[in-house]
Specification:
The complex is a heterodimer of chains A (504) and B (145). Chain A has 504 residues and is an alpha/beta fold. Chain A has three domains: 143 residues, Alpha-D-Glucose-1,6-Bisphosphate, Chain A, domain 4 (2-Layer Sandwich), CATH 3.30.530; 129 residues, Quinone Oxidoreductase, Chain A, domain 1 (Alpha-Beta Complex), CATH 3.90.180; 133 residues, Rossmann fold (3-Layer(aba) Sandwich). In chain A, strand 21, helix 14 and strand 22 form a beta-alpha-beta unit. Chain A is globular, with a radius of gyration of 25 Å. About 6% of the residues of chain A have low confidence. By secondary structure, chain B is α+β, with helices and mostly antiparallel strands. Chain B has a single domain, classed as START domain (Alpha-D-Glucose-1,6-Bisphosphate, Chain A, domain 4), CATH 3.30.530. In chain B, strand 3 and strand 4 form a beta hairpin. Classes of the chains: A alpha/beta (504), B alpha+beta (145). The interface between A and B is medium-sized, with 16 and 17 residues.
Chain lengths: 504, 145
């Protein structure tokens, strides 16, 4: 028999690491060797005796059974039932301990098994490095990493100056002094959709610490409406709206590292200025794109996906069994919230404005769908939950739904008000919230995403969820850049389902 | 019964740290707060049941009895017999675990004791921060690579 034991320190609080590792079916989210995993028979992933059936990236399949799980000791043991390798009698344990000095985590991963003598060294190395050490690195990246989509290969580390001369004929040199011109949607004053006017603007070469991006697709979000109307002060006219796009690095300014001309990238962050063919910006919050994901999909989903990630994990942490009420569930963020909350084990109650939208949301996996034009949704939620009410309500509709959302919550329920598509929610006397000990948050996108440290975990989660099919992005509705005003009209009229993009 | 748990990482192999801390009579050589120590009745410091009698730099005297010592688990447990802190049934364990990634040490120190309820938080602070963490901090500095 051999014993293998590997340990590491993860720079995150022990409860954060445990919340990742205690999910016996969650290894597909973080382990690079695993492409797909499911619990047999639909058992709960934390039921002792549960069997996880998973497939490796090389196509082989394994089954493992949960033997012990302790939230008290933060320990989990499992054994191998079937595998393509002779890891006979393989029993493994994971245990975590808090490092109080610095609030980090000690993680030990150990196992015993009986390998055939002639394959002993090979199998020990596979378990030690291929499974345990690789797992350590993935969880480390998941919890405190930079965006995953960023390639770690040698090319990205090479100095920009060495790469550029290799393709001088493709792009102007990075020190090019002459500027260029680009089509853009220019807002000369705050107002309705009609203020979104196509113009041609001068674009200087990227200055120190900036890159120039040639957009392919630009995401249209409700926050762009708030910028256009002046409800948010992110856009001071004259200015170009938009906070989300995918494209290609077209030029690199001095003192930029990690980005080269030709890199595929995307972003979902201020400053505004995405509604254009080309722009310059600091690359701090850019995400490198891998081959598996299209510009169109990313432009349609990055900002909404990051939003869904922090709404479901940071603003309120949705746990298995929670009752989650989601308004505007057929909308861009709504569709992601429905799919993701369901994956997290929540009971999802969705509201929509029409029967057509109800069918879409049912297909996404909502447990209950309420057409709120026809039925009082607060009463419906109470009926569906046998009077207990929802644990959390995600409300970006605002004025029309805010009061109903409060009424639909259970005791100690939480209302996440993250938008006001139907108008501001008005003034409320918080004294009344004590009848159910209701809490409310009004999150602001920037406060959850404005540094690589804050953004990284959401990027990682979002791309992992996309890769694994936890969330599916429907084909977005496309508009030419010049028709940005039409896109806003459709978005505000709630005529659309799913995402809208502009074609640069 | 108050429980105290403090843990840290030390940038040295666990066997090296263990060589230093396994000596039940060795507190003056690695903690910042012990002035002198002796083992009563001339016993060996690794004899289970031996009693260390040490003087703190602030003048207090403490007697502690070795309950368990494991060179296999890199762990040492002891009971406090006398101290100026007015605690009862005080039992503590210091243990080390190798961290294979980086060849470092994960060090844990835990204690349980009884005391007057109103003194719990002050004692927990005094022992957790003033004793365990400050000893770990000294180890970290000593083994800084």
């Amino acid at each position: 028999m051999v014993k293998v034991c590997q340990s590491t320190i993860i720079n995150a609080p022990v409860q954060d690491v445990w919340s990742v590792l205690r999910d016996f079916n969650g290894h597909e989210r973080w382990h690079p060797a695993i492409s797909f995993s499911e619990i047999e028979g639909g058992d709960a992933a934390d039921a002792i005796g549960a069997v996880r059936h998973f497939r490796l990236t090389d196509g082989s399949e394994l089954r493992e059974q949960l033997l012990a799980l302790s939230d008290k000791d933060r320990r989990l043991s499992y054994c191998l039932l079937e595998a393509p390798l002779p890891l006979m009698g393989y029993v493994a344990s994971i245990r975590l301990k808090p490092v109080t000095d610095g609030n980090t985590t000690f993680w030990e991963w150990s196992s015993e098994f009986h390998p055939p003598a002639h394959r002993r060294d090979e199998l020990v190395k596979l378990v030690t490095e291929g499974i345990y050490q690789a797992g350590f690195e993935s969880v480390r990246r998941l919890l405190n990493g930079r965006p995953v989509a960023e390639p770690t290969g040698a090319t990205s580390k090479q100095p920009v100056a060495r790469l550029i001369p290799e393709r001088p004929q493709l792009e102007p040199p990075r020190t090019s002094a002459q500027g260029t011109r680009a089509k853009a949607i220019l807002v000369e004053r705050h107002g309705g959709p009609e203020v979104l006017q196509l113009a041609e603007i001068a674009l200087a070469p990227p200055s120190r610490g900036e890159v120039q991006i040639r957009h392919t697709f630009i995401g249209v979000n409700f926050i762009d409406v708030y910028c256009r109307t002046g409800y948010f002060d992110l856009l001071q006219p004259p200015g170009v709206p938009g906070m989300e796009a995918a494209g290609v690095i077209a030029a690199v300014g001095p003192e930029v590292s990690g980005f080269s001309v030709g890199d595929r990238i995307a972003y979902a962050c201020p400053p505004v200025g995405a509604y254009c063919e080309r722009r310059n910006m600091a690359p701090d919050l850019l995400v490198h794109l891998t081959d598996g994901v299209s510009d169109l999909t990313v432009a349609a989903s990055l900002l909404k996906g990051i939003t869904a990630s922090f709404l479901l994990h940071d603003v309120y942490s949705v746990k298995p069994g929670a009752v989650v009420l989601i308004h505007a569930a057929a909308g861009g963020v709504g569709q992601l919230l429905v799919q993701w909350a369901r994956h997290l084990g929540a009971t999802v109650i969705a509201t929509v404005s029409s029967d057509d939208k109800a069918r879409i949301v049912e297909r996404l996996g909502a447990h209950h769908v309420i057409v709120y034009s026809r039925e009082n949704f607060a009463e419906a939620v109470m009926r569906l939950t046998e009077g207990k009410g929802a644990d959390v309500a995600y409300d970006a509709v605002g004025n029309d739904t805010f009061g109903g959302s409060l009424a639909a919550l259970g005791v100690r329920g939480h209302l996440v008000s993250f938008g006001q598509a139907s108008g501001p929610v008005g003034n409320w006397d918080i004294g009344g919230f004590s009848s159910k000990s209701i809490t409310i948050s009004r999150p602001n996108y920037a406060h959850y995403t404005d540094s690589p440290e804050k953004l990284g975990p959401h990027i990682n989660r979002f791309f992992a969820a996309l890769r694994q099919g936890v969330i599916k992005i429907g084909a977005p509705r496309q508009y030419d850049l010049a028709r940005a005003a039409d896109a806003h009209r459709d978005l505000e009229a709630r005529r659309t389902t799913g995402a809208l993009v502009l074609k640069a | 019964m108050p429980k105290i748990y403090v843990s840290s990482t030390i940038n040295a192999p666990a066997v090296d740290v263990w060589k230093l801390v396994r000596n039940f009579n060795g507190l003056p050589s690695w903690t910042p707060f012990v002035a002198e120590s002796r083992i009563e009745q001339n016993a060996h410091p690794d004899q289970i049941g031996c009693i260390r009698n040490f003087l703190l730099k602030d003048g207090g005297r403490i007697r502690e009895k070795l309950l368990a010592l494991s060179d296999y688990d890199l762990s040492c447990s002891y009971a406090m017999l006398e101290s100026p802190m007015a605690v009862e049934n005080y039992i503590a364990t210091l243990s080390l675990t190798p961290v294979t990634d980086g060849n470092m040490t994960f060090a844990e120190w835990r204690a349980e004791f009884d005391c007057a309820p109103e003194r719990e938080s002050a004692l927990a602070q005094q022992i957790g921060t003033g004793v365990f963490q400050s000893a770990f901090t000294a180890l970290k500095q000593r083994f800084a690579r």
